[in-house]
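Hi,

Apologies if this is the wrong queue. I'm a grad student, and the batch job for Ndc10 domain-containing protein from Absidia glauca produced an output file that my downstream script rejects. I'm not sure whether the problem is my script or the file. Here is the sequence I used:
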Amino acid sequence: MKIKPPRQAQKWSYFSHRESIGKASSSLGIRSSKNTHINCGSSARMAAFQENWCDQWQHSRFFYLARAALNPLTSLCKKLFLAIGEWHDRLAAKELSPGNPIQPTVAENAFVQMIMMFRKTFIQDLVLMMELHPCYTIWQHSIFSDPAYLSFKRQVHIIA
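Support response: The file is valid. Your script probably expects a header line. Output copied below for reference.
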């Protein structure tokens, strides 16, 4: 097997950049007349949200909640990002499917581990986010009426 050397970085023309972003956006059903600057407004809004969230978080009672202090049940975590457990098992077995071997990369393993950690963190943060933004439609998801979640929520309120 011949290994190719990495490509040298080349300057990307404005037209190529615009065209690539346009194709990616349209394949996702996103329409914009500002393809090369499509994320500028959202980036500014996200930065403002993050700054506001950090201020609220640091000056409130939820500063205490340490992630290691209270973990949601594994069974509850498994209800978010359902396929990640299957991918974890596939990478551990080094098989994409039975009889179809794969060689997992460090990046693949790290990504799966990150998603597994994220779902736990997501559940921990959602308990407190519900109080800040009670009108969000996401709270109608079935996980928020799950007995395991309701029990976890009560425990968070006890220690918060």
